[in-house]
Amino acid sequence: MFGNYLDGNIGNTLDGVATAYERHIPAIPERRDVGRRKYRTIWISDIHLGTKGCNADLLIDFLDRVDSETMYLVGDIIDGWRLKKKFYWPSAHNDIVWRILKRAKRGTRIIYIPGNHDEMFRQFTGLNFGGIEIRRAAFHDTADGRRLMVLHGDEFDAVMLSHRWLAFFGDTLYHLMMGLNNGVNAVRRAFDLPYWSLSKMAKHKVKNAVEFIGKYEETVARAASERGVDGVVCGHIHTAEHRMFDGIEYWNDGDWVEGCNALVEHFDGSMEILNWPEEIAKREADEAATCVNAARVNAPPVPEAA
Ligand SMILES: [Mn+2]
Predict the structure, then answer these.
(1) Per-residue pLDDT for 3 more than 50?
(2) How much distance in Å is there from the Cα of 233 to the middle of ligand 1?
(3) Is this model's pTM higher than 0.70 or not?
(4) How far is CA 233 from CA 54, 70, 191, 248, in A?
(5) Quick one: which of 117, 124, 164, 245 could link to 221 by a disulfide (CB 3.0–4.6 Å)?
């Protein structure tokens, strides 16, 4: 009798666990009314969940409108450095985790390569959580037969390697700057102005930053060439870019703190960097145009002058 009681209850509880995720509705419900653009591969990185800098709403909009056979999460998905200082986890950040797990469940192959901010997950390299494979790095073969090395990229950051304290100090400065960035954008939103990136502008203005980025890109490309691959995909420096170094492709998928970019591979193997704020602006302009046209079509005929 006792055994049955336990079996029944544990059985129910386990069933409950198995379906709680399925029954859960995220705070920002998934959009099912819009078509999803389908790609062969999507790379995103530097989401920094757990920080105020993360543009969760833009990323949710992105995830609800695209789909792919394979998705690479190229590091700094969750910001352990920040969370250690102050716990911050709004429901929108949970909604992103929910959406990623949901994709894995729907059959997208998801490969997660932890970065330096989520290095606590590197110890789980080789394991699989909810259909998400954790790797230290990966090789990706494109539809047209190119072989790309995929890694976060902090491995080649001179500051991260030899001056770890400076990396942490820089992180604090960056965090302050991103706080300012969010303030500026809240004001811009209030005035109906599009998203604008403070540090993107600052980076282009400061000579040292430009030099650092250039040197970093070259170092990563050289490392890829030494490994005999056709190119490399990385993140880490929050600067989406496509460059060629002596025939080696360098791709950076950007971030979801400033630029809000993703890297995608089409079914023919060609690749493209998406700028999501620009995509949203384009979509809204198209929708507005459609509305104007619909209004024209549906407008009552103008009465002829008597
Ligand atoms: Mn990083």
Answers:
(1) no
(2) 13
(3) yes
(4) 21, 14, 37, 11
(5) 245
